[in-house]
Design brief:
114 residues; alpha/beta; Rossmann fold; five-stranded mixed beta sheet; 3 helices; 35% helix; elongated
Length: 114
């Protein structure tokens, strides 16, 4: 059986919540997609003098309740789908505790120990 990705899991959780809340289908559709996603290349001079380039991304999920908030994940296997799911979850967390922020998350594909 194929392992469920973080984004698949977040979308399934949204589907279940939308069903239980009898959420308007248009709002449900809107919440399935991030407002903005950005992929960048980051070139850095390493301690040994060599230049290494890393892929990074930032996802801003929704800004209906306020400005975006969310940290950065540094991991060798970070993906845009994973960062998208983390941004969605940050949106839900902010809404549940009623703080005026919305979900965002960043990620850099690197080994932070190196």
């Amino acid at each position: 059986m194929k392992e469920q990705s973080a984004l698949d899991m977040a979308l399934e959780q949204l589907r279940i919540a939308a069903e239980k809340l009898n959420l308007d289908p248009g709002i449900h559709e809107m919440l399935k997609h991030p407002k903005r996603s950005l992929i960048v290349s980051i070139s850095i001079k390493m301690d040994n003098g060599e230049i290494s380039t890393f892929t990074g991304c930032r996802v801003q999920h929704n800004d209906a309740r306020g400005p975006f908030k969310g940290g950065i994940r540094y991991h060798p296997n970070v993906t845009l789908d994973e960062v998208t799911a983390l941004a969605m979850w940050m949106t839900w967390k902010c809404a549940v505790v009623d703080i005026p922020y919305e979900g965002a998350k960043g990620g850099v594909c690197c080994n932070p120990k190196k």
